[in-house]
Amino acid sequence: MDAAWIALIGTVFGGVGLKIIDHQLSKNKIRVDDAARIRDELRIEITSLRDEINKLEVERDKWRADYYDLRDKINSLTTELALLQNQLDALRQK
Question: Which of 84, 35, 24 shows the shortest CA–CA distance to 43?
Answer without folding.
Answer: 35
